[in-house]
Design goal:
Blueprint (H helix, E strand, L loop, with lengths): L10 E7 L5 E6 L5 H17 L7 E5 L2 E8 L2 E7 L5 H12 L1
Antiparallel strand pairs: 1-2, 1-5, 3-4, 4-5
Length: about 100
């Protein structure tokens, strides 16, 4: 399923991470998945502060390049890509895959 995302120009790595931080599925060159647990902590903190219950995605621009975290049930899809300028294309591809 997620291997299709590698066909989108700019995507280097994708991984579906379960609620415990384990890899359900991945494709492409490796990326540090520990960022998912940190991202979940940030999202939880923001949700508590803002009184929100859901989230759509979180963009992190780290040393290796941007990473988009997108919820999928109790899992999170990590999408590592080459440039923040590609964000619109990446979001569109991720939403199309997950819908």
């Amino acid at each position: 399923m997620i291997v299709q995302l590698l066909e989108v120009r700019g995507i280097r790595h994708v991984a579906l991470i379960d609620a415990q931080g384990g890899i359900v599925s991945s494709a492409g060159g490796g990326s540090d998945i520990s960022v998912v647990q940190a991202g979940r902590a940030v999202i939880g903190s923001l949700q508590a502060a803002l009184g929100q219950s859901g989230w759509q995605d979180l963009l992190l621009d780290v040393g290796d390049g941007p990473i988009l975290l997108t919820p999928h049930g109790d899992q999170v899809l990590l999408t590592a890509f080459d440039d923040v300028a590609s964000l619109g294309r990446i979001r569109f591809a991720v939403r199309r895959l997950l819908s």
